């Protein structure tokens, strides 16, 4: 990771110093200021311990996008026309959306969907019905609050619809109003041979 930052820094330095200018004195000062800003921004991104209002707001928007992404992954996981490998990858992405496997299973139970772990497929109800799902009416019900030195929590509410598919028709089989917790926390990530704590977002406390 340090090597990557060095390469990035040298690239930015080269870009700034080779830019064409008409004068020397004032422009050199501007270049130095800009270069210092680059270094500060790179460093702050990794060492900051407390998130700003603007950053938390950005994470809130990311949470909404993450819910929409979750819908896509669920529909891939439930699609019998796709390969097992593709459905397996979708299942992995669904799991990464949640804070734990237990949170994921609670979410499935609330929606009345079940996993066939042998064939890697997601079904609606115990009758193994084929389905697709959609999410709408997403709104923030709790703004982010600092929970610990390295985590923030908030809450979203949304409506999830399950459409059952059979040979004759597609019907709206289930509507579930969900409340879901959002966690923004520092997680250790591996970058080559080095590790670094970075801020990540996931869901838990599904109701």
Molecular structure report:
This protein has 207 residues and is of the alpha+beta class. It has two domains: 39 residues; 152 residues. It is built from five helices and six strands. Strands 3-4-5-6 form a four-stranded antiparallel sheet. A hairpin with a 2-residue loop joins β3 and β4. α1 packs antiparallel against α2 and α3 runs antiparallel to α4. The protein is globular. The N terminus is likely disordered.
Key traits:
single chain; 207 residues; alpha+beta; 2 domains; four-stranded antiparallel sheet; two-stranded antiparallel sheet; 5 helices; 6 strands; 43% helix; disordered N terminus
Please summarize the sheet with the most strands.
4 strands, antiparallel
Mean pLDDT: 81
How much is the radius of gyration in Å?
A: 23 Å
Please give the domain count: 2
Q: What is the share of helical residues?
A: 40-55%
Structural class: alpha+beta
* Beta-strand fraction estimate: 35-45%
The general outline is globular
Report how far the terminal alpha carbons are from each other: 39 Å
Number of helices: 5
Largest beta sheet: strand ordering: 3-4-5-6
The count of DSSP E runs of length 2 or more, i.e. the number of strands, is: 6
Task: Please render the helix and strand layout as text.
Blueprint: H1 2-17, H2 25-47, H3 53-77, H4 84-97, H5 101-111, E1 113-116, E2 121-124, E3 130-148, E4 151-165, E5 170-191, E6 194-204
Antiparallel strand pairs: 1-2, 3-4, 4-5, 5-6
Helix pairs in contact: 1-2, 3-4
């Amino acid at each position: 990771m340090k090597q990557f930052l060095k390469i990035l820094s040298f690239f930015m330095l080269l870009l700034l110093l080779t830019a064409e200018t008409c004068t020397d004195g004032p422009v050199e000062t501007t270049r130095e200021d800009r270069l210092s800003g680059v270094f500060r921004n790179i460093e702050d991104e990794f060492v900051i311990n407390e998130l700003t209002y603007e950053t938390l707001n950005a994470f809130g928007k990311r949470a909404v996008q993450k819910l929409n992404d979750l819908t896509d992954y669920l529909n891939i996981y439930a699609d019998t026309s796709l390969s097992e490998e593709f459905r397996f990858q979708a299942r992995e992405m669904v799991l990464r959306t949640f804070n734990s496997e237990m949170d994921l299973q609670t979410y499935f139970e609330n929606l009345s969907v079940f996993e066939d772990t042998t064939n890697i497929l997601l079904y609606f109800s115990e009758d193994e019905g084929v389905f697709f799902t959609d999410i709408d009416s997403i709104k923030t019900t709790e703004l982010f609050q600092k929970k610990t030195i390295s985590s923030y929590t908030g809450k979203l509410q949304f409506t999830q619809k399950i459409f059952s598919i059979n040979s004759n028709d597609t019907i709206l089989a289930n509507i579930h109003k969900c409340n879901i917790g959002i966690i923004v926390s520092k997680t250790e990530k591996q970058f080559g041979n080095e590790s670094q704590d970075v801020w990540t977002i996931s869901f838990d406390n599904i109701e």
